[in-house]
Specification:
Layout: H1 2-33, H2 37-62
Helix pairs in contact: 1-2
């Protein structure tokens, strides 16, 4: 049972890493396309929040971060 959980966790972690990499690659072209200053600030803030969220999930998978609900 534990082996299945570990494999699933590694698969989820790998897909998260790929997703983060794709977002990081797309960030520069998208930020160059956006001309409106307010929209650019909003996009960068959303990108930062998404990065913080995925870092938190990654730390939780690695065992460094314990949620209060567990």
């Amino acid at each position: 049972m534990k082996d299945i959980r570990r494999k699933k966790s590694k698969g989820i972690q790998l897909s998260r890493n790929i997703f983060i990499l794709v977002i990081a690659i797309l960030h520069q072209p998208i930020s160059k396309i956006i001309e409106n200053r307010n929209l650019l600030v909003a996009f960068n803030l959303a990108y930062l929040l998404l990065a913080i969220y995925f870092i938190t999930l990654l730390l939780k998978d690695m065992g460094y971060y314990k949620s209060k609900t567990q």
